[in-house]
Amino acid sequence: MTIIDEPRFASEPDAEERAEWIESFDSMLKVGGADRAGTIMSSLLERARERQVAVAAAITTDYVNTIPADQEPEFPGDEEVERRYRAWMRWNAAVMVHRGQHPDIGVGGHISTYAGAATLYEVGFNHFFRGKDHPCGGDQVFFQGHASPGMYARAFLEGRLSEEDLDGFRQEKSKEGHALPSYPHPRNMPEFWEFPTVSMGIGPMNAIYQAQSNRYLHNRGIKDTSDQQVWAFLGDGEMDEPESRGLLQLAANEKLDNLNFVVNCNLQRLDGPVRGNGKIMQELEAFFRGAGWNVIKVVWGREWDSLLSSENSAALVDIMNRTPDGDYQTYKAENGGFVREHFFGKSQVTKELVADLSDDEIWNLKRGGHDYRKVYAAYKAATEFKGKPTVILAKTVKGYGLGPHFEGRNATHQMKKLTLDDLKSFRDYLRIPITDEQLEADPYRPPYFHPGQDAPEIEYLLERRRALGGFLPERRTRHADVVLPEEKTYTIAKRGSGKQQAATTMAFVRLLKDLMRDKEFGSRIVPIVPDESRTFGMDAFFPTAKIYNPGGQEYLSVDRDLVLAYKESPAGQLIHPGINEAGAVSAFTAAGTAYATQGEPLIPVYVFYSMFGFQRTGDSFWAAADQMTRGFVIGATAGRTTLTGEGLQHADGHSPILAATNPAVVTYDPAYGYEIGHIMRAGLERMYGGNHPDPNVMYYLTVYNEPYVQPAEPEGVDVDGILGGIHRIAASETEGPRTQLLASGVAVQWALEAQRILAEGWGVSADVWSVTSWTELRRDGLAAERDAFLDPAAQSPREPFVTRQLAGAEGPVVAATDYMSQVPDQIRQYVPNEWATLGADGFGFSDTRAAARRFFNIDAHSIVVRALQMLARRGEVPTEAPAQAFERYRLDDVNAGTSGNAGGDS
Predict the structure, then answer these.
(1) What is its EC number (predicted)?
(2) What is the distance between the alpha carbons of residues 678 and 700, in angstroms, rounded to a whole number?
(3) Which of 395, 484, 501, 717 could form a disulfide with 707 if both were Cys (CB 3.0 to 4.6 A apart)?
(4) Is 334 strand, coil or helix?
């Protein structure tokens, strides 16, 4: 193949010498092949750099297939058989969505994505994707969300789904028992889907960290995953998501050659071209190559091979390089004559190149992503490549084969149904044995097609899956036994801090350290911290648990002589994703679902600045919930006024509300270490004790950096109250008007201070309650209301837990937290007492803790004044008492605040 147009250089200096070098290279290529030529060129470039000769780096290659036709391996399958049942899948996938658009249903769906990507999937299913019964343990496949109808269509041919199931698409409650979720939703189809991917950008991140997690399991000696592959199917439009590209460097840095991205480059996003004026495949090639990935482009099908091997191929490649994606999309929406005139007609040379081809033959020049041989060659090369992750950029047509109303059209993504003519055309194109009469009988319900389980094509399909280790997708939850920690492991949490002060963050870290020391259980804990370990007091883990790095520590550490030296190891336990919350949640998800993906439970413990959790990565936590992740999420340095030195964007006053929107997140705001101990223990029992009906949860604990004395666990502590959400920690012995002070987390200290002031200064009796979970109390209250609503004949409906706990608690309630008022107000309707909330509403700012709390009026003296106001209205204290207290405590002066001390890392 001639790839250099020599006359271009005829007028340049040293043209003759240049031509000789080019001739020499061509000769070397012809004799030694592409691999040999590439090795020599790499050596020359390296030598040039050594001698400080500036050479421009080539980050893109020509707009042709990376693997030349003469280097393609033999396709091992029966291509014609595979084509036949692939056509049936494409038909059934489209019909399933179309039937869902019956006027009585109208649930939507996507037809075009799978129509264009079917070959990409089928080559994988037939020859590469290994199921869980394979000796390697199976591969993990992240399917493109909008292509889900194709996976259902395959499962139908496999006998895993029935026609009734297909007709339950997107009707999960009305067709319960025979229902299919719209996209890959493991929570809604827990034995089928393994990875949720339709929230674009999260699939790529999670696939990268799944590949890392597989290596982590292997390097730590937990499971041999050395032969497993991770496949992620993505859209070229999806690659615009920052999350899709933002973590590529991790895969390259850790040499994750067990990871393969397949980008379905149909050149279209949801509304139109991805890069109408540019070339998305070239852009992605440059981006991935620059990030350190191996790049394989699959641009053209076999029909182009003879044209690209002709003597005039250079002119054709030049046009391919210059034609923008917007034009390529237009060509596929037109016809062969249009392509002849507008593409090949750009030069006389290329026009003559196809002079002997008919318009139909030109139209049949396919894109590479629809060619079994080209895709097989790319997949084989990807799985055999060592040292780097691989991305396959496969060019396709969105809506391929669906007819002129669908193929390559801007609106194809939103098109849900086919006209009768579309159905007939599609049927003819796929050669489906269905008659016109069958289609005309009810155009909204064209029949599915299945040739019968005894058909040779179905036997071939099933044999391929048997050889590859079983069906995919499939999710299994059988896992190795987990020996939970004994009660003595929690002693550190019950003991308190003695006379020393300790923040709840430190109380938690001390407990975590003891849990990790447990001989039976400790190795299953996966601490995950995004570059703030020292802030949270977790640098003590560095020399013992070590930081996971598959390359080990090849440098001489600057702090090697210190007790808490920074140490990396391939067997390290601590995941350190850097300043990277999105990656940390992906690592959390991979570890927290290892019980299902690998049959080896891991307990991830993700510790982060509370402000940068659900606010920054809430969508990822939602996907984690869909994937049924189990683990602990620790929002450290929590509260709007506790980390005041950091200022507005670090001042968390709302994370419990954000967390409450996720049904799989169990949120706690503990005040003391012993509460943390009981919560952690209950969480582990729920996840892996085997007795809870819903173990697939993430426990979110907010902990603080403000130090105060951690009391020892009181004898006879109300454990049910701690876990249920509220328990009384200090009953007043004062005789006088009564009030109830409800607080959580660090605010419990202000409530205790207010209790003392009310007793000593105003003769008021105040009980103090630690509300460990406003959110769980609300959920329980809502459940009680719903139970009563659905059983109107019940004589004694269940009371909410908080109502029962506060039964007999006299007087008005003042609820205070270091969060916005909405947090405690979650339970307001379930407390019959008169209620007042003190909340840190608005933005945070930098100042002392005492000043900030006085500004928001959530401190001890504010609690006192608020309680006195309500008691005065009831006539239980003098009418002037609130005003006197307000003036005495200078409640409007931020410099008069006293609640809170200095100290604690930030």
Answers:
(1) 1.2.4.1
(2) 14
(3) 501
(4) coil
Under DSSP, is residue 84 helix (H, G, I), strand (E, B) or coil? helix
Q: What is the pLDDT of residues 28-47, one digit of tens each?
A: 888 888 778 878 888 888 88
Tokens 């991917």 correspond to 197
What distance in Å separates the CA atoms of residue 174 and residue 647, rounded to the nearest whole number? 50
Q: Which two tokens stand for residue 551?
A: 């390359």
First CA to last CA distance, the chain:
64
What gap in Å lies between CA 445 and CA 157, rounded to an integer?
19
Angstrom distance (rounded) from CA 590 to CA 594: 6
Q: State the chain's maximal CA–CA distance in angstroms.
A: 108
CB 154 within 8 A of CB 141: no
Mean pLDDT to the nearest integer, 448-452 = 97
For residue 717, the SS3 value is coil
Closest by Cα among 878, 898, 577 to 736: 878
Q: What pLDDT does 28 receive? A: 86
Structure tokens at 276: 């109408």
| Structure letter (DSSP) for residue 72 | P
Please state, in angstroms and as integers, the Cα–Cα distance from residue 441 to each residue in 74, 434, 435, following that order.
Answer: 45, 12, 10
Q: Which pair of structure tokens corresponds to residue 846? A: 């930098």
Nearest Cα residue to 809 out of 858, 771, 755, 765:
765
How far is the C-alpha of 766 from the C-alpha of 759, rounded, in Å?
A: 8
**One-letter amino acid for residue 736 of the chain:** G
Given a contact cutoff of 8 angstroms between Cβ atoms, the answer to whether 398 and 111 are in contact is no
Residue 698 — φ and ψ, nearest 5°?
-120, 125
Q: How far is it, in rounded angstroms, from Cα 116 to Cα 175?
A: 29
Q: Are 645 and 706 in contact (CB under 8 A)?
A: no
Residue appearing with tokens 């002849």: 340
Average pLDDT, the chain: 94
Cα separations (Å) of 296 from 195, 271, 309?
25, 27, 19
Contact 768, 748 (CB under 8 A): yes
What is the rounded CA–CA span in Å between residue 623 and residue 619? 6
3-state secondary structure of 530: coil
Exposure b/e, 568-593, CB count within 10 A at least 16 = b: bbbebbbbbbeebbbbbbbbbbbbbb
- Residue 318 pLDDT: 96
Please state whether the predicted TM-score (pTM) of the whole model is above 0.90. Answer: yes
Q: How far is CA 513 from CA 475, 506, 643, 667, in A?
A: 32, 10, 24, 22
The pLDDT tens digits for 769-809 are 999 999 999 999 999 999 999 999 988 999 999 999 999 99
State how far the Cα of 114 lies from the Cα of 90, in Å rounded to an integer. Answer: 7
Residue 544 DSSP one-character state: T
Q: Could you give the angle at the alpha carbon of 52 between the alpha carbons of 49 and 53, nearest 5°?
A: 80
Peptide bond into 812 cis (omega under 30): no
Q: How far apart are CA 244 and CA 204, in angstroms?
A: 5
Structure tokens at 765: 């009796």
Name residues whose C-beta falls within 8 Å of residue 124's C-beta, 6 or more positions apart in sequence: 141, 231, 262, 379
CA distance linking residue 36 with residue 30, whole number of Å: 10
Q: Residue 249: what pLDDT?
A: 95
Instruction: Check if the beta carbon of residue 434 is closer than 8 Å to that of residue 449.
Output: yes
- Partners of residue 755 on adjacent β-strands: none
- At which residue do the structure tokens 């012993």 appear? 674
Q: Which residues lie across from 245 on neighbouring strands?
A: none
Judge residue 370's burial from the number of C-beta atoms within 10 Å of its C-beta, 0-12 exposed, 13-18 middle, 19 or more buried: buried
Q: DSSP secondary structure string, 683-711?
A: HHHHHHSS--S----EEEEE--S--EE-P
What pLDDT sits at residue 859?
98
Report angle CA 824, 828, 833 to the nearest 5 degrees.
120
Whether the Cβ atoms of residue 319 and residue 343 lie closer than 8 Å to each other: yes
| Angle, helix 79-99 to helix 112-127, in steps of 10 degrees | 140
Q: How far apart are CA 64 and CA 403, in angstroms?
A: 26
pLDDT of residue 26: 84
Q: 232 pLDDT exceeds 80?
A: yes
